Amino acid sequence: MNAQSLPSFARVRSEITRNRLRATLAVLILVSAAAVAASASAEGISTASKESVPDAPATENHTVVTESGRAGTITAYAPDGEVLYYNNSRTKYFDVDPVDGDPLTVEYAATDTIHTAGPTCGDPPCTRNVIERADLETGDVEVIYERYDYKEYAGEWHDIDRINETHVVVADMVSDQVFVVNTETEVVEWLWDAQSDFPLDGGHSWPRDWAHINDVEYIESGQMEGRIMASLRNQDQVVFLDRQEGLLGNWTLGGENEHDILHEQHNPDFIPESDGGPAVVVADSENGQIKEFQREDGEWKRTWLWEDDRIQWPRDADRLPNGNTLITDTHGNRVMEVNESGEIVWEVGSTLPYEAERLETGDESQSGQSAAALGLESRTPEEIGSEGGGDGGEGMITFEPLEYLGGVVEWALPHRIYNALLFASPVWMGSSDFAAIGIVLLTGLTWASLEVRWQLHDAGVRFRLPMYRQSGD
């Protein structure tokens, strides 16, 4: 072997440097992948079957929870916390209300997605929306009213509210309408179309998911008796409808893109004057807060706010007769009850809960008082943290890189995009897992780019910036 056949010292040093860099990148990928694998294998929440549903803490009444995410479920907990009733036969379950005079019978809105072409779906996927009544003790289920709709995306009825024994008001997300139907004759007797009062250049894209009407409530007492409250999620507004006059514009809560008031809210509940209102308690979903607004001098004024450092896309809040508030925290994977001091006093895990109802306490916030009447004080993570507590680890400084990077991911992404990621990803995934996957992808792309560059360099291929000669005067 002659001297010319020996690799140069620079070439050897370059190869060692490359191998060290390869090893570093490989370790980074393996560590990040292991973190994701550990999260995936950890014992997490599951509601895929009745046996896997976690028991709840004991409480004085029955509690019903619906889910509308990856799997649709409706679960009823007995006061001792055990599962009394469970059903997952529908694709999604949304609003659930108690039936007057029978505290262990409920009515709810549910959806089936149709994936096979046939008489009820010429161009799949389509949707079957149903209003059902379930006896939680016997398990008997009765279809009260149903309708087939032509699309799956934004094709559901998220809420219904009973007016009397024969009439129900429906939030029709498919057609961007609110209608009252006689469930015995199946005749629609009144209808409000959002297009009559809102321009199509607002909200989201029409006709895909323009208004996203996700809640209706028939108001039974007070100066608004007989009116209907509706939530237009994509217009960031809660509106009030009169069946003769239409939209009562001076009562509207919120405004489009006025996100400091509401941002794509869910499930507002009306509290009448007899309970300290007029007031509205609402899940301000994209802001990650529970808020209450009081009607004062012809305007809405925020009087209460609750959040903690875990809440993520709440979609329901009910004021209970004892002054507590029942909250459904969808991406926090929990349903919880907070007391008048803002402390969590009851909590049960759920994969992607949509709504919760505490039975034997009236429909939603029907028997609860307003925050103003109760003298509730707002609670935020900063206020909770300033009150002390903790595990006695004062003075200890800990740093978790993935948790830190997960926080950066959550901060950097628009709230709607981050919530969309949570909704589409497995339930065990959180911000740290998104950060770890991002590290794997970025490291892999960097490694591949370096290998290409090294191969070209060894082959004698060079890339130089173009040189321009500037002509003189």
Secondary structure tally: strands: 25
Strand content: 25-35%
Portion of residues in helices?
Answer: 10-25%
Main β-sheet, in a few words?
A: 5 strands, antiparallel
Mean pLDDT over all positions: 88
Number of helices, counting only DSSP H or I runs of 4 residues or more? 6
Structural class by sheet pairing and helices: alpha+beta
Cα gyration radius (Å): 28 Å
Determine the N-to-C terminus distance: 59 Å
Q: Can you tell me about this structure?
A:
The N and C termini lie far apart (59 Å). A hairpin with a 5-residue loop joins strand 2 and strand 3 (83-87). The longest helix is centred in the first third of the chain and has 33 residues, at 9-41. The radius of gyration is 28 Å and the shape is elongated. Helix content is 20%, strand content 34%. The protein has helices spanning 9-41, 371-374, 381-386, 401-412, 415-424, 431-458; strands at 63-68, 72-77, 83-87, 92-99, 102-114, 126-135, 141-149, 157-162, 167-172, 177-182, 187-193, 213-218, 228-232, 237-242, 246-247, 253-254, 266-271, 279-284, 289-296, 299-306, 314-319, 325-329, 334-338, 344-349, 353-358.
